[in-house]
Amino acid sequence: MISVTSGDFRGNKLWLQAVAGGRDWVLCHTSALECLELFVGYLNEKQIDVYAKEPGEYENINYRIVDSFDDIGIVHFRNMRYTSVNQTVNDMLSDFDNIDEQSLVEALATYYYRHDDSFDGLEIDFKNQAAFDSISDWAIEYYNED
Questions:
Q1: What is the pLDDT of residues 87-133, one digit of tens each?
Q2: β-pairing, 61-65 with 48-52?
Q3: Are 48 and 17 in contact (CB under 8 A)?
Q4: Dihedral of the CA atoms 132, 138, 143, 146 (nearest 10)?
Q5: Nearest Cα to 30, choosing from 43, 18, 39, 17?
Q6: Which tops the pLDDT comparison, 99 or 4?
Q7: Contact (CB, 8 A) for 39 and 110
């Protein structure tokens, strides 16, 4: 079974709230970047990334099964939860070969320009530093590209 797509809503954050709000999930990866308003999302997007304690019924939701949410940096907004900026960036960097690279680069670019041309405030785990270094220049130049 497929849940609704983003095209059914006026914005991706509203879509994510309608699908994930009130559930025992934590939106993560690209879905968290959309909630954090660091990535605008895709038109008629249907994939949602969540941390969950058990698999669910929807085939367009990527369930990343965890035992507990205790060690996850979480932001609470209305009736939904999503990973914090630092948690999201580190999660995606640690799974770099399997992520939506475009969403992460755009998010880092947005973060950079919102923080006065700086990545200050981002806490990159040591194990993720090489992956971050490999895309940080791309992120800095992202909005300058033709």
A1: 999 999 999 999 999 999 999 999 999 999 999 999 999 999 999 99
A2: parallel
A3: no
A4: -160
A5: 39
A6: 99
A7: yes
- How far from 11 is each of 3, 18, 88, 145, CA to CA, in Å? 16, 11, 20, 25
Burial class (CB in 10 A: 0-12, 13-18, 19+), 34: buried
Distance CA 24, CA 31 (A): 15
Is residue 134 classed exposed, middle or buried when 0-12, 13-18 and 19+ CB atoms within 10 A define those classes?
exposed
The structure tokens listed for 123 are: 């806490």
> Quick one: angle between helices 101-114 and 85-94, nearest 10?
140
Q: Which pLDDT score, from 0 to 100, does residue 146 have?
A: 52
Residue 111 is encoded by which pair of tokens? 């973060």
Domain boundaries, the chain: 6-144
pLDDT digit string, tens, across residues 41-89? 887 778 899 999 999 888 889 999 999 999 999 999 989 999 999 999 9
Q: What's CA 69's distance to the chain center, in Å?
A: 16
Size of the chain in residues: 146
